[in-house]
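User: Teach me something about this protein's shape.
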Amino acid sequence: MVKAKDWPVDRYVEQVRAGLTPTTARGCLSYLTLIASEFEGRRLDDVISTELEALAGQVQNTALRRAVSRDGLSAREGFITAARAVWRRAVADGLTKSNPALAVNKPKRTRARERRGLTPAEVSELWESIAVRTADPELGLTVLRLALETGTRRAEMLGLTAASLEKASGCIRVGAGAKNASHRQQTVMMTLFDTLTELATARHGRKLSPTDPLLVNQRGQPITRRWFENTAARVRADVPGLGPGGDLWFTWHLTRHTAGARIERAASYSVAAKFLGHRPSGRSGVTVLYTGATLDEVRQAVKKVWQEPMAGM
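Assistant: First, the predicted structure itself:
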């Protein structure tokens, strides 16, 4: 029989964290670590709502000192969500009778920053910022092209290797790090295909092997999530409209919005869904399933948007 005294908060949090997906774990890691540290050695049924409320306030105040968005409310909400998840599992496991985090109210959502694709003028400012303000503009602009022309997610770009380049089909194979562990072929233009190949070959200093990462720095080391975060921070500091005082708060995911919007305008919703690798869901899911686009339709839409020859054609 499982006994509450055998599962102090810190030990139980580790158990919860071990069962999370990598993506979910990254999003709530700091909150779980704080919970484990603050209540180390204490029983799950010994923690009260007032303590969690105070800790949520601490999280919000800490976020205020290092960010400008949403007054720390997003961090507070994230902490409460993590706490509720821990004690919800504890209730299910019979380690406590109630969830004290349910009594801690989440903050009311304020009007979020605008979320849309970048305008041509904003893309130009973004391009100039990366070209001028980053230490490795060749890499930065290659990544920007890849993001804008293919709509690939950050994790998908980080997972690209030489084996991802499919010359016969003129596509890149998106797989490692992909959301929902999905795999798909992403059509690319010939110039981008060649740029990715040449950059990786030059920086590895030899003929590419299948497992070689495509996106590497000047030392031949693969870029990381930190590279994306640092580059985005420089852009926000450099481009007024994409930073603290602007309409948009630049993250690399905005390039995915931009790419998807361009394809939808040039073709259709179904083609854009195929291009972005979205799976059918919700009420519109059946329609998208029935009217699903082909890879060739995506290729034609990309060619129409960028007016360049496609790889593999």
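Now, about its shape. DSSP finds 13 helices and three strands in the chain. The radius of gyration is 23 Å. If you'd like, I can walk through any region in more detail.
User: That's plenty for now, thanks!
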